[in-house]
Amino acid sequence: MELRIQKLEEYKKTLSQKDAILEQNIYSDALAKYLAEGGAPMDAVTLLAESYIGAPSMCNVVASSATSIGVDSQKVMREAIKQKLKERFDPQRCDDYFMSAENQQQPPEWLDVIIRDEHWRQTIYELIEQYPRCAFLNYAVLRIANSDYSNEIAKLKTASTYIQVYNSILTESFSSIVPLDDLEFEDRLPDIVRVCCEREETYLYAQMLLQKLCENEDNMPFIRLSKELEKAAIQSGQHGFVDILKTYLSAAPLQVSSALKAIRSNQQATPGDIMVLYKLYSSNEPPHVNHIRDFGLINTMLKTVFVPNSGTVLKPELKEKLIYLIAYATSKNDTKAMEKQEIKQVCDTLTELQIALNDKAKGENLTGAMKSIVKAINIPIGSMALLLWIEHTSIHTPYFETYFRSSEVPVLHLLLDEIAYRHPLQRPFVFQVIKNCLRHPYQNFAPEILMTLQKAWIDRLLYLVQVHYTIPVLVFMKQTERDMDDSLTVHFVQKVLRMAQPPYTLAFVEHMTQILLPITEMLGLIKNVQTAVLNFYDEAKDDRNIVISDSLAKNIDHICTSSVKRKQK
């Protein structure tokens, strides 16, 4: 009898909860069982009636009133429910109920419903950041990842906590980068890098998976991603771990791995390391070329040979051996037999370029070196060496202070244009050199001459736009225009709009708008620029393939109306 009374009291408590009559399954789970245990029907009715306060109805009335005065009641209600849910969420009770044996076999129907709603997915993400060990939340995240929302999951700090979720993210991420171009790859990279480099074990897992993909698939995207992960891990202070794993995965001979580790650690090639690698790679049975076909390693070797004061002073015979290693690493082709003649040609070209830049590059026009420069610029590794030398000459020597004339395009600038034209894959490196030089605080210049030099560097950016390396340049101008004179931005905008022809992409219109916003008032002072801007926006608005958002349209209207008003004044 005592047990029966206890059950009746439990059912009474259930029936006495606020708005119990509105709870799902209240009749089957509480009322029917209460009556079956001998509870009085009138008592049950009284309990349900007294516990009713009508919270949902009151919410509907408040929402209706809010809507009538222009408030987004749906958004307000969602945020209120979200806040209450976060305040009252109990991960232990949640796991005890939803992850029990009987409930785990059949997930609640409402879970898939809320997964399709961005607002509630975001709520789950916020909860799992707060309760990363909640089994139900991790199960929900896995369901989200399997529902084609892996891009969202990749941004979570806890994305790599569970192997199923992590596997799902890596599978989607690695598959998606294969068809991407360079710009799209750069956009996707930060999220992938953050997930893969979160901890040592996630980095290890990702690199081993990439190693397998490189062996069995079209490996270029995966090689690049692997290098980006290495770079990110080193920047976060994991240099030693990266070296150990790299040595293990490459399966390089001990002598090779030791020499490469020393070069990477010291960021310079010492005579001892050069001799070890040269003897191995000039032997009849050289190690695999992949061990030295590494961008960071090749870049370090190029600096040692072509950049003065790079840290290591080498005798001519050691420079020859280092040039051989550079030529071997960049000439070996996995799809055909090694041609020693090709390596010799690259060696001869690089040696000739090194001597010319060191001994013959005199005066404004580099008299005596141009023949060797023109020859070297035809091969990619030659142009990369030249890029390093141009950056050093532009920043660390008085070349521009001595030879810059406002009426002529500097020879170094013409060489940058030529490299960008001949080698499309090197445009990001040309872009980086231009950015470094444009940001450099040149000394000993009269203000007007310095402005002209900066304008000449802006013209190099414009040439990159001309060869279709557009969006990175626009992003850079948007980020740095506040640090440069407005006249340089106006010059850039004028030239870009002169080159651009419809149809435009939405990204182009958005970036140009962000560049134009800070100089809106200046546009009205220069008639031809103002006309070009107005025509540009008229053409963009007429393009049915571009969907202009309300915020973008507002900015466009501000630019157009402000420039017209300024002109009228």
Automatic annotation (TrEMBL):
Protein name stated in the entry: TH1 protein
UniProt source species: Absidia repens
Short name of one Pfam family: TH1
GO molecular function, one term: RNA binding
Family classification: Belongs to the NELF-D family.
GO biological process, one term: negative regulation of transcription elongation by RNA polymerase II
Transmembrane segments: none
Domain of life (superkingdom): Eukaryota
KW Phosphoprotein (keyword) present: no
Subcellular location, record wording: Nucleus
